[in-house]
Amino acid sequence: MIFSVEFIYIVMGIIGLCCSLYTFADKANPRRLLSGLFYFIYSITLLLGSVIPPFYIGLMVILMVLIVGMGGLRKGKYGESSDQQRETQRKRLGSWLFLPALLIPLLTVAGAKGFEGVKIGSLFIFDPKNTTLVALGVACLIAIITAMMLTKNTPQTAIKESRRLLEAIGWAVVLPQLLATLGTIFTKAGVGTVVSDLVTQFIPENSLFMIVFVFCIGMALFTMIMGNAFAAFPVMAAGIAVPFLITKFDANPNHIAAISMFAGYCGTLMTPMAANFNIVPAALLDLKDKNHVIRVQIPTALLVLAFNIVLMYLLVKWEV
Amino acid sequence: MVLIGVALIIIGFAIRLNPLVVVTVSGLVTGLIAGLPIVDIITQFGEAFTTNRYMSILLVTLPVIGLLERSGLQNQAGHLVSKIKAATAGRIITIYLLCREVGAALGLLSIGGHPQTVRPLLAPMAEGAAKAKYGEVPEEDREEIRAHAAAADNIGLFFGEDIFVAVGAILLMKGFFDQNGIEADPISMALWGIPTAIFAFIVHSIRLYLLDKKLDRKLGSKAKKDVIR
């Protein structure tokens, strides 16, 4: 294929690597060497992840965590533009400023739908297994070039600005990947079966409402622990939905499926384990409390969870 | 025994240790309790970290967003919104929530996202609307508005996407039922997601309406009601 997902990882790695060079050189950062090393290692894992043996990547990950644990990751100075500079540029460009930002979603959708499975000769244009991801990467590259031309800035400025944003996110940038790692270790260690055994113990077998209640709450809780509703569904469905709801109460699987997944998503909204959705955005938006997004989401999540329980109960009951 | 790892996570997050450290320690401990050799655990760390590199995709969006911010993108977003009299923080986020949810239901999952849409566009628009309405907005309220902007992206995405038939979640469930010899139909599964999707939208729009009311109560007295530059 012409644009593979590995190509996107290389672009990500190069951006990170260039950012880390500026961090190494940032005299305003009291721990510039350690901070630079953090972003440097991170970039190497992105850039060479498929070349370096996993054991060494694992060691590098642990080293990054140690740097953060010792307080070695600090912020520096970024030479931001002044309010006045921004205002002059804004007046000059007006709403053209939106163009590169809008190009990202538009080109991604167009690329993902338009080039899916399209070949030149015998080569796929986009990696057929990861079309959306590759389309997003290519869309960003086009948007980067457009943004540089529009704002008349050099690639160096683009990197400096990226570093400002990257350091604003800080350690949270690796948390999603690390949590995914924890997920695989939990699965290997059999945490899933233990949790589902525990939940199943609470089921009073003859009360339909209680079964639905335990199933939905279980989906949400399990998702909160694993950070991922996809991991929760097979375990909870095999433990509760199939033996009790479908076999015993004759529930229609089509009714149960989406509602139980939504119950899981209610859990996703309430857990720091879903870092990509909850913690990284808090860092990205400069929120002092990293759990602020979760705090905002909890009331909606609980109400929707309650609605799911009632809805599932009624659907199963009316069929009986 | 393996639940010790889960307990470590809960305690670690509760006493606000750095999440990276908490997650790593829990992973190591869980692995050791389960009897995996340390070399295997570290290899596992490396393997999973590498397979999940796609989660760092936001890196490629940073140069675009950074350059545009440097040129006043956020100011322009706020400026545009401040010209619309009816705009309030809550209403703007509600409109976004609707677009995000409908978009996701149609399979357009990549039209939103925190780095590419919320930070450069939605959050400054919502803040700009509040600023136009109330004058200076204190930092804590601006943070509340930004947190709501991020939350709307999640809620719209989550409760919209399962209505789209070809989404991962529906396919995963279909696969699960097939394996267990239970007949299930993806279209019907997706359709039964609609009531919850609508309910989530209603509940969250009401909460955004309440956010506006709260801001009105708190900042309303200072409002420069007719002065809109």
Keywords:
heterodimer; A: mainly alpha; 2 domains; two-stranded antiparallel sheet; 1% strand; B: 229 residues; mainly alpha; 74% helix; disordered C terminus; Membrane protein (chain B); transmembrane helix (chain B)
Overview of the molecule:
The complex is a heterodimer of chains A (320) and B (229). Chain A is mainly α and 320 residues long. In chain A, 74% of the residues lie in helices and 1% in strands. Chain A contains 14 helices and two strands. In chain A, a hairpin with a 2-residue loop joins strand 1 and strand 2 (123-124). The N and C termini of chain A lie far apart (52 Å). The mean pLDDT of chain A is 90. Helices cover 74% and strands 0% of the residues of chain B. By secondary structure, chain B is mainly α. Chain B contains eleven helices and no strands. Chain B: Keywords: Membrane, Transmembrane, Transmembrane helix. Chain B: Pfam families: DUF969. Chain B: This is Membrane protein.
Give me the secondary-structure category of chain A: mainly alpha
- Element-by-element helix/strand order of chain B: HHHHHHHHHHH
DSSP E strands of chain B, number: 0
Placed side by side, the strands forming the largest sheet of chain A appear as 1-2
Using only CA atoms, what is the Rg of chain A? 24 Å
Which pair has the most extensive contact?
A-B, 139 and 113 residues
Which term fits the overall shape of chain B? globular
Mean pLDDT of chain A: 90
Main sheet makeup of chain B: none
* Residue windows where pLDDT falls under 50 for at least 5 positions of chain B: 223-229
Secondary structure class of chain B reads mainly alpha
How would you sum up this structure in a few lines?
The complex is a heterodimer of chains A (320) and B (229). Chain A is mainly alpha-helical and 320 residues long.
